[in-house]
Amino acid sequence: MAIQPIRLFGDPILRTRALEVTTFDKELRKLVTDLTDTMLEAPGAGLAAPQIGVGLRVFTWNVDGEVGHLINPSLDLSAEEQDGPEGCLSLPELTYDCKRALSVVATGFNMHGEPVRIEGSQLLARAIQHETDHLDGVLFIDRLDSEARKAAMREIRQSDWFATDQPVIKTSPHATRGFGF
């Protein structure tokens, strides 16, 4: 069991599109195990590889006692929508109602490179969409309407976990004659 630290909002990897997995080897199986262990320990309904600092298209889920993983996902979303509470392990203690497709058919691969097809609705559909968004550098707060997004950003800035350290800008003690700060 290898619990990994979860990257928080502000980490650039959370805004970077993850790369397709091309090699299904022992290292990939370890990544899936680390993701699963970390997700279960957190606990969360899902966890994507970028959330533990790995830029690959891999995620895990834990919904209604079903634990699984998907690699290189492709989604087919229903036209019918659901609107409900959503949170994220990379945005601790933040929950907002977010619109998602009511059901999803996800295809991809398991850790052994075998094709997988997952059909889900309600919470499983939400988790699969949320984690696939992570692989595209999209956070659930990006899907909120502008008023809710502003409220979420305000809550993030006021949170204890958000990095409030501003970069220090040093100025020269010497005359710069307009060529510097």
Automatic annotation (TrEMBL):
The lineage of its organism: Bacteria, Bacillati, Actinomycetota, Actinomycetes, Propionibacteriales. NCBIfam families: pept_deformyl, PRK00150.1-3. Keywords: Hydrolase, Iron, Metal-binding, Protein biosynthesis. It is an enzyme of class 3 (hydrolase). SUPFAM superfamilies: Peptide deformylase. Belongs to the polypeptide deformylase family. It comes from the Bacteria. Its EC number is 3.5.1.88. It comes from Nocardioides dubius. Its cofactor is Fe(2+). The active site is at 131. Removes the formyl group from the N-terminal Met of newly synthesized proteins. Requires at least a dipeptide for an efficient rate of reaction. N-terminal L-methionine is a prerequisite for activity but the enzyme has broad specificity at other positions. Binds 1 Fe(2+) ion. Pfam families: Pep_deformylase. This is Peptide deformylase. It catalyses: N-terminal N-formyl-L-methionyl-[peptide] + H2O = N-terminal L-methionyl-[peptide] + formate. The keyword Manganese does not apply. The gene is def_1. PANTHER family: PEPTIDE DEFORMYLASE, PEPTIDE DEFORMYLASE, MITOCHONDRIAL.
